[in-house]
Amino acid sequence: MSSSTEKAFAIERLADRGLGYGIPGVTVDGNDVVAVYEAAEAAVARARNGEGPTLIESITYRWKGHSRSDKNLYRTKNEIEEWKNLDPIPKFIDRALTSGVLNQGDIEYIQKLSTEQIVDAVKQAAAAEAAEPSGLLEAVFKAVSA
Amino acid sequence: MSERMLTMAEALREALGIAMTERPEVFILGEDIGIYGGAFGVTGDLYQRFGPERVLDTPISELGIVGAAVGAALSGMRPIVEIQFSDFTAQAMDQIKLRRFTSCWEAHSMCRWCFVRHRDPELARLLNTRRT
């Protein structure tokens, strides 16, 4: 959680690791929705065509601490701010508006809908009955007929 | 005799500091033990006191951490491994079972390992000392 990829890996592009497994490695800007989509689309097409897996390195950043006790001592406020400026959501909104795929009304509708879905999910989870110890093995084993 | 009250983390940190002061071949390696001070604060300020070469932040690879420690121990160093959560120990079983235990016999020297487990917060610590 506190080691940067520069420090933890000897190579600059993790996608290069694909070479050792004989599979293509692709590096994409993980904060560019369209770039990630296109890389995934090509990888899925390759896999469905029977040509095997693809390693996709999607470069992005965790803004907040790893947990609530993480004081971010291992990085600077500047670094965090720089990455916040690269927020993929406004970047994608800009692109969708400029290209005319979506209008301002669509954007607001999608944002409202997403917020509602999240609020509903939280409410549903909070209202759900607490799990019982007897349910511990549910969905762990599959019944097999003798 | 006066009594001192320490938390388990403070006692471990003090012991690690003493071991590193007394023996230059002692070093610690593990995940987030440097600037972060350890996931449970055990290493604390040891990074500031002893530097990055003796309080070594490693990538997330228990197998690599224990493997490096076994190699270092066999060549005369006294590594102390911090495994962040004891359940991650299973990730290093190949090195623990096949290398750590068998190397002693392969090298015809005596190895003594003790396994100290921190009860709460959960922390496992493998302490390797080799008798020659």
What order do the helices and strands come in, and which of them pair?
The complex is a heterodimer of chains A (146) and B (132).
Chain A: H1 5-8, H2 18-21, E1 25-29, H3 33-48, E2 55-59, H4 77-84, H5 88-98, H6 104-127
Parallel strand pairs in A: 1-2
Chain B: H1 8-22, E1 26-30, H2 46-50, E2 55-57, H3 62-74, E3 78-83, H4 93-106, E4 110-118, E5 123-131
Parallel strand pairs in B: 1-2, 1-3
Antiparallel strand pairs in B: 3-5, 4-5
Helix pairs in contact in B: 3-4
Question: Would you write up a description of this structure?
Answer:
The complex is a heterodimer of chains A (146) and B (132). Chain A has 146 residues and is mainly α. Helices cover 46% and strands 7% of the residues of chain A. Chain A has six helices and two strands, in the order ααβαβααα. Chain A has a two-stranded parallel sheet. In chain A, α3 links the parallel β1 and β2. The model of chain A has no long low-confidence stretch (mean pLDDT 94). In chain B, α3 packs parallel to α4. The C terminus of chain B is likely disordered. In chain B, β4 and β5 form a beta hairpin. The termini of chain B are far apart. Chain B has a five-stranded mixed β-sheet, sandwiched between helices. In chain B, 36% of the residues lie in helices and 24% in strands. Chain B is α/β, with parallel strands linked by helices and 132 residues long. Chain B has four helices and five strands. At the A-B interface, loops of A face loops of B.
